[in-house]
Amino acid sequence: MKTQYIAAAVLSAMLLNPLPAGAEGKNGVAAVVNGEKITVAELKDSYNALPQLKSQISFDQFYPRMVEAKATETAILQAAKKANIESTPEYKKQLDAVKKQVMSNVYIQQQVEGKITDNDVKNLYNQYKKEFKPQKEMSARHILVGDEATANDIIAKIKKGENFDQLAKTYSEEKNPNLGYFTKQMMVPEFADAAFRMKKGQYSQKPIKTNFGYHVIIVDDVRDSKPISYQEAEPQLRQALAQKTAQSVLKNILDNAKIEQYQLDGKPMPKTPAAQ
């Protein structure tokens, strides 16, 4: 899997593709826990409420993990209700704390959402495009094995004309040999150095050793990177603006609040220098 080799984070996102028609669980139901139904619609609502997650993985890809997590949560909740946890002092104490936290979070969220416009997002995207500097990127496939001897045998078979994908299916520790497009900074140094010395159509003449094992690489394409589309970048751009705006909202709240703080000995708390 390509993500295993990423060494540095980059601004990228996946297009969010809706589930194909008809792929809505079993009549709209994702799971049933002791007779209680969990619907696909519930899971979609939870997914759509997490913009940062949406920018990283599509709903249909994340769906199996969501189903398992929601089913587990539901089973635990059912057990808690059966034990009448809601009547215990500890539950009521924690619930009060959670209510206060939720109230604060919802207030900040509403303030932030009211201050971010589509134009703000588009302006940030235009700034990203203006400052974008193309880098060399390549599309490649690889075969990963645990020892050098096997990697050398695979290279010998490639030289004899055997199909790379078929060899990957037979020998590789990873099911999908395709790494897609990546820049040099996205891979561990040993892998990146070897791959970016090769040209389109070339394959490694000797195994490349990394902490994951021994790789045999074939380069499918080399090109200059381009800015990702607005549709791809929008979720992360909104998230970045939200974080910046939330800091501004919080500062405004504190600037307009009369706050007196005291040390344990009753003396006024020394003021900390304002963050620059």
Describe this structure in words.
By secondary structure, the chain is an alpha+beta fold. Among the domains are: 26-124, no CATH class; 135-224, Chitinase A, domain 3, CATH 3.10.50. It has helices spanning 40-48, 51-54, 59-82, 89-113, 118-131, 148-159, 164-171, 189-195, 230-255; strands at 29-33, 36-39, 136-145, 178-183, 208-210, 213-224. Helix 5 packs across helix 9. The chain is extended and about 80 Å long. Mean pLDDT is 88; it is low at 1-23.
Topology summary:
Layout: E1 29-33, E2 36-39, H1 40-48, H2 51-54, H3 59-82, H4 89-113, H5 118-131, E3 136-145, H6 148-159, H7 164-171, E4 178-183, H8 189-195, E5 208-210, E6 213-224, H9 230-255
Antiparallel strand pairs: 1-2, 3-4, 3-6, 5-6
Helix pairs in contact: 4-9, 5-9
Summarize the structure in short.
By secondary structure, the protein is an alpha+beta fold. It has 9 helices and 6 strands. It has helices at residues 40-48, 51-54, 59-82, 89-113, 118-131, 148-159, 164-171, 189-195, 230-255; strands at residues 29-33, 36-39, 136-145, 178-183, 208-210, 213-224.
